[in-house]
Design a protein that fits this description.
This protein is of the alpha+beta class. It has eleven helices and 19 strands. Belongs to the prenylcysteine oxidase family.
C-alpha cells in the first residue's frame, strides 16, 4: 500500500455470540490457568484502595475485536479525558531534561488548546518534518493491520505466522530493526534517539533496535484516543469465558502434554489427568517447563521482563535538578542509556499537591535505596515483575501455529510479530478458524492460497 493512499477503514465487525466459530457437534472446552484469576498480563493493582492497570493497560481506537468485546459484554470504557490528552512530557537523559512540554493547571479549554498548539509547534521545531513522517508510518502500518478485519469470505485462514504477515504486507517490518526502517525512511536522528526511543522503552521496555513491526505497533500505541475498560481490561477475558461453554480450572497448571495417538493426555500439577482431541497452548512457552511427548521444536526466545513499581507518595524534585514537584512532567520518559535505572515514571493520579500515585517501569527491580532518592515521600510501594513480551530482534523467527502433525496449537507464536491485547485476539480468531478448517478436512490457506485437502477421519474424541 502506498504511503499516499487513503483507504476507507472498514467498519468494526459486528459483535457475535461466543458460539460464532463452534462446530455444530457438541464440544466441551476446558481452560486451565495457573493463576487464581483469569486475565494473564491483563491485571490490576490496588493502591490505597484505588484500582489501576498493572499490565496491558491501553487499547487503540481501531482495536475492533476489543471494542466488540466491550460492547458484547456491556463493559464501560474509559476514554482519554481532557487532562490525560494534554499530559506533560519530559525526556530525561539522567542529568537533565532534553525536552519538556509546556504545562498548565488551567481547566479552561481554550487555554488547554493553546498550550497543546504551542507544544505541537515546539516539537515540530525540534524534530522537523520527521514528525509528519512518523504519523504517516503509523497510519500505513495500521491500515495494513486492518486487513485482518475483512470478511471471512475474503480473508484466508493462515497455518503459520509468516503467511499471515505477508498477506497483510507487514512481514518485511519483522526482517529489520525499527531503527533501520526509520533511517531508511530518512527520519531525523534526533527524533529516533529521543521521542521514538522514549515510546519504545515505555511500551516494550526496549530500544529502537527492536524489530520494525513491534516498533510500529509501539508507536501506534502512543497516539490519541486510547482507551481501557473501566475497572480493568481483564474483565474482557473474564466476560468472554463466562459467556462461553467453558470448564475453567483456576490454579491448575498443565505440566505435560502427550500425543497418545489420536488424542492428547494432559497432566496437571494438581495431579489430575485429562484427555482431549485438541490442545491449544495460549501462554508464552519461553519460561514454562511443560513436557511435550514427543518433543516439539520452537525457536529459542527470551522474554523481556518489565518491572512495574507502583508508589503512593511524592517525587523528589532535587533528583531531577528541579525546585518544585510541580516542575516535574507527569510523564518522564528516558533515552537509551545503561546509566538510567528506569524507563519511565508516570502520574496515575494526583490526589492533591503532596499526594500522587505513580507507576515506574524498569528493566531491573528498583531498590528501596534508589526509590528513596527518587521520592521525597513514599507511603506505599508495590512491585510486579512481568515476563511482559518477547525480547525483539530482527530478523524475527516464528514458532509454528501447529506444533505437531495433529492438533496441538500455539497461539502465542504471533507475539514475535507484536505483543498486544488486540494482536492476541487477531491471532486467536485465526486459530479458531484454523482448527475448524482442519477438523473439516480442509488445509488452510498458506503461501497465498494454495488449498489442498487432508484427512482427520480418525478423530474420535469430542472434547477440546
Amino acid at each position: 500500500m502506498s504511503a499516499s493512499s487513503a483507504p476507507v477503514s472498514p467498519a468494526p465487525p459486528s459483535p457475535t455470540s461466543s458460539a460464532k466459530y463452534s462446530p455444530a457437534t457438541p464440544t466441551k472446552i476446558r481452560m486451565f490457568d495457573r493463576h487464581p484469576a483469569v486475565g494473564g498480563r491483563m491485571a490490576t493493582v490496588t493502591i490505597a484502595g484505588e484500582t489501576f492497570e498493572a499490565g496491558a493497560s491501553i487499547l487503540h481506537p481501531k482495536n475492533y475485536h476489543a471494542l466488540n468485546f466491550t460492547h458484547m459484554l456491556n463493559l464501560k470504557v474509559n476514554g482519554p479525558s481532557a487532562s490525560e490528552s494534554s499530559i506533560s512530557l519530559g525526556i530525561w537523559d539522567g542529568r537533565k531534561f532534553l525536552f519538556k512540554t509546556i504545562d498548565s493547571d488551567s481547566k479552561n479549554q481554550l487555554v488547554q488548546y493553546l498550550i497543546s498548539l504551542a507544544n505541537s509547534i515546539r516539537m515540530l521545531f525540534r524534530y522537523g518534518i520527521s514528525l509528519l513522517k512518523m504519523n504517516n508510518f503509523i497510519e500505513v502500518t495500521v491500515d495494513n493491520f486492518l486487513k485482518y478485519y475483512e470478511s471471512k469470505e475474503s480473508r484466508p485462514i493462515f497455518s503459520n505466522v509468516e503467511d499471515m504477515l505477508k498477506w497483510s504486507d507487514l512481514y518485511n517490518l519483522t526482517t529489520k530493526t525499527l531503527e533501520e526502517e526509520l533511517i531508511g525512511l530518512k527520519f531525523s536522528p534526533l527524533l529516533i534517539q529521543e521521542l521514538i526511543t522514549v515510546i519504545t522503552r515505555i511500551n516494550y521496555g526496549q530500544s529502537v533496535r527492536i524489530s520494525g513491526l513491534a516498533g510500529a505497533v509501539s508507536l501506534a500505541g502512543s497516539g490519541g484516543d486510547l482507551w481501557s475498560v473501566e475497572g480493568g481490561n481483564w474483565q474482557m477475558a473474564a466476560g468472554l469465558i463466562n459467556q462461553s461453554d467453558v470448564a475453567l480450572h483456576l490454579q491448575e497448571e498443565i505440566s505435560s502434554i502427550t500425543n497418545a495417538g489420536g488424542f492428547y493426555e494432559l497432566n496437571s500439577t494438581n495431579g489430575n489427568s485429562y484427555t482431549c482431541q485438541i490442545a491449544v497452548v495460549a501462554t508464552p512457552l519461553d519460561e514454562l517447563a511443560i513436557q511435550f511427548t514427543p518433543e516439539i521444536s520452537v525457536p529459542e526466545r527470551k522474554l523481556q521482563h518489565t518491572h512495574a513499581t507502583f508508589i503512593r507518595g511524592v517525587l523528589n524534585p532535587a533528583y531531577f535538578g528541579l525546585n518544585a514537584v510541580s516542575d516535574i512532567p507527569e510523564l518522564v520518559g528516558t533515552i537509551e542509556s545503561s546509566e538510567l535505572p528506569f524507563t519511565c515514571i508516570s502520574v496515575l493520579k494526583k490526589h492533591d499537591a503532596n499526594d500522587f500515585t505513580y507507576k515506574l517501569f524498569s528493566r531491573q527491580s528498583l531498590t528501596d535505596v534508589l526509590l528513596d532518592q527518587i521520592f521525597s515521600i513514599r507511603n506505599e510501594t508495590m512491585r510486579i515483575n512481568w515476563g511482559a513480551y518477547p525480547h525483539y530482534h530482527a530478523p524475527e523467527e516464528f514458532a509454528p501455529f501447529i506444533l505437531d502433525d495433529m492438533h496441538l496449537y500455539y497461539v502465542n507464536a504471533f507475539e514475535n510479530a507484536a505483543s498486544t491485547m488486540e494482536t492476541s485476539a487477531v491471532a486467536a480468531e485465526n486459530m479458531a478458524r484454523l482448527i475448524l478448517s482442519r477438523l473439516a478436512g480442509q488445509q488452510p490457506l498458506g503461501s497465498y492460497g494454495l488449498k489442498s485437502s487432508t484427512s482427520d477421519s480418525n478423530l474420535q474424541h469430542p472434547e477440546l
